[in-house]
Amino acid sequence: MTEEKPSSQVNGIQKDGSPAPIKALEAVLLNSISMPQDAIKIQGYDFNDGLNYENLIQSYFTTGYQATNLGKAIEEINKMVKKHLIDRIFH
Questions:
Q1: Parent domain of 54
Q2: From CA 31, how far away is CA 80, in angstroms rounded?
Q3: 3-state SS, residue 64
Q4: What distance in Å separates the CA atoms of residue 14 and residue 91, rounded to the nearest whole number?
Q5: pTM surpassing 0.85?
Q6: How many domains does the chain contain in total?
Q7: Considering only Cβ atoms within 10 Å of each terminal Cβ, which end of the chain, N or C, has fewer?
Q8: Residue 70 maps to a domain
């Protein structure tokens, strides 16, 4: 059985064995920094816990950039709907 070679560079070496350009490595291989203590942990919904739509939508806040913004939009729409319903009831 032959080992499948990755299609991209590994450790700064290209497929053909030549070194990767230094500028490319400097732009991509950056030192990591510690996350702030109050940073939100990115974590998706755990479907092993069953399907709960409210919790699924709530998990959008910690799933990633696009899902976070979708979660914020859903929250804003829910605020508008709630305000509209309250205004209809009391006016």
A1: 40-90
A2: 43
A3: coil
A4: 69
A5: no
A6: 1
A7: N
A8: yes
